[in-house]
Amino acid sequence: MSRRSAHWRYFCFSAAASLWRATALAQELEPRTYSPSPVGTNFLVASYAHISGDVLTDPSLPIAGVSARFNDVLLGYVHTFALANRTASIGLALPFVSGDLSGLVIGAPTEVHRAGIGDMQMRFALNLVGNPALTPEAFASAKPITSLGASLTVQAPTGQYVPSHLVNVGNNRWAFKPEIGLSQPWGNWFFEASAGVWLFTNNKDFFNGADKSQAPLTVTQLHGGYSFRPGLWLAVDLGYALGGATSVNGVSNSSGQANARGGVTFAVPLGHGWSAKLAYSRGFVTRAAGDYQIVTVALQYRWFDH
């Protein structure tokens, strides 16, 4: 099997797993998001993530000394298709979150437990340069080349939300992330870069009726990795999030984020149509929270339309 034929295996996790990253986890790292892929491919993904540390990235909350442990289970689906002779994909994902958080709320020690369905995310991606629409058979024999793509992720306010709670599973607002990404193969090596910005609508029912707004949050990522054989690869990941200052009833409560993260991702094929992924990341330069670590295990099944 050629190196190119393994690219659709890389794509499966990046396309599906990148959907579920909610605003609180906007700094999570995801390699292979813009890798080429064949059309007419379907992916089902189930993943588990354990998040621990200062998880809250919302500086508007009057909470200090945060210590949290959350478990996140995700179910996602992605489908690739041809659009104007280019490769496109559409997918959706829905997380279920359960965990415990402790800290000082307005100076008083407090512990809370939260569990429920999180905000649904939908993602549309389109390759712009270097990846024409190819069937799996044609894709397997094509030569790897540089590709450039763009995507739009939409987060809908479908998650569990209680206005009297400072901490919720859902965000009670819409969020949109336009993004552009570059993928560069080099023999068995691959290199990627992406840049996007989260745009938020207002939460008009924040903590007993307040109106909370958030400034745009820019997110950039760099990835470099090596493919040992088809479907078996290792990547080193770096990311940086900047901005996202919040205001409540028009009064600014924060100076925004300036957080850098690093991590590693390992993917392995398990058999016909099955693959698995293990990833770890943590913050190493943080401002306004973001000092947390994430361990993710994912299982994926792939099939073709024909």
β content, as a range? Answer: over 45%
| Helix run count | 2
Give the N-terminus to C-terminus distance in angstroms: 20 Å
Strand order of the largest sheet: 1-2-3-5-6-7-8-11-12-15-16-17
Radius of gyration: 19 Å
Mean pLDDT: 84
The helix content, as a percent range, equals under 10%
Query: What sort of overall outline do the alpha carbons produce when their principal axes are compared?
Result: elongated
Uncertain segments are 1-25
Structural class: mainly beta
Order of helices and strands: HEEEEEHEEEEEEEEEEEE
Q: Largest sheet, if any?
A: 12 strands, antiparallel, barrel
Number of strands: 17
Can you walk me through this structure?
With 306 residues, this protein is mainly β. The protein has 2 helices and 17 strands. It has helices spanning 7-17, 136-141; strands at 41-53, 63-83, 86-105, 108-117, 121-129, 147-155, 175-186, 189-200, 203-206, 210-214, 217-229, 232-243, 246-248, 251-252, 257-271, 274-285, 292-304. The longest helix has 11 residues, at 7-17. It is elongated and about 60 Å long.
